[in-house]
Amino acid sequence: MIRVILVDGLFTIFVPKNGMSRYEMLQLLIVKFLGVRIEVDEIQPVYDAMRKKWEEILPPNHGEKWAIIDREILRALVPTISLANAALVGKKISHATLSDPDLYEILPDTRGFLRRAKHRGIRTVFASNQDKEKLQILIGAFGLGPLVNAVYVSTEIGHEKPSQDFFEAILRQENIRADECVMVGNNPHNDIYGAASVGIRGILYDRDNAYSDFSGHRVSRLSEVFEIDAIFGERR
Fold it and tell me: Residue 232, CB half-sphere, CA atoms under 13 Å: how many?
């Protein structure tokens, strides 16, 4: 029986407004903070390359990590920018991306998903590679406090998804077994495979069908989560 649902934060519960991609969001923020417009098809390969290069080797402090990644993205996209200015703007972009409610929205079916979990007596907890104070800003801005039972973040745990240590720490805090919870998130590597490494079943939230070759449990709407009989059938 599932007692706890672990949910990712950004791009799962909080999704970019108006269907923006993460690259379009970065484009918007570069214009806002630097006054330079760069096309999305230029941003995407640089973003992906810098994320791949830096994300797993920097310490598990998400705000500082992404300030550095955004700094390096800017330096690659705007060769004339000084290191000091790239660092300053990178911090502004990172902070906005991680905590600005004006960039995000909560889809109607997401609220329904959270309410349904509460009605069924299932704890819903955030399991996020995030800074707690920034994640709490979004939780408060969208009024999700009554629907969220706990918030677990990498900056407090000291390990990031997909680390086994991250998920094992949450199991200990919640005092549950791996088969008593499920992980719902938008990142196959961090959320699904990371959770699976300690025996937690995962459900990939693939709103835009970006991972059509994913062979595990996958939903395009969070309202579909409870329709997965292999995980929740025993509670119907």
Answer: 20
* 8 A C-beta contact, residue 211 and residue 218: yes
Cα–Cα separations (whole angstroms), residue 153 to 8, 87, 101, 184, 197 = 10, 24, 19, 15, 18
- Give the residue carrying structure tokens 């640089």: 46
Q: How far apart are CA 211 and CA 41, in angstroms?
A: 20
Burial of 1 per CB tally in 10 Å (0-12, 13-18, 19+): exposed
β-partners of residue 7 are: 126, 184
Please list the residues that pair with 205 across neighbouring strands.
219
Rama region for 39: left / alpha / beta (φ>0; ψ in -120 to 50; rest): beta
Q: Express each pLDDT in 68-111 by its tens digit.
A: 999 999 999 999 999 999 999 999 999 999 999 999 999 989 99
Average pLDDT, the chain: 94
Angle at 110 between CA 14 and CA 106, to 5 degrees: 40
The sign of the CA dihedral 126, 103, 56, 85 is negative
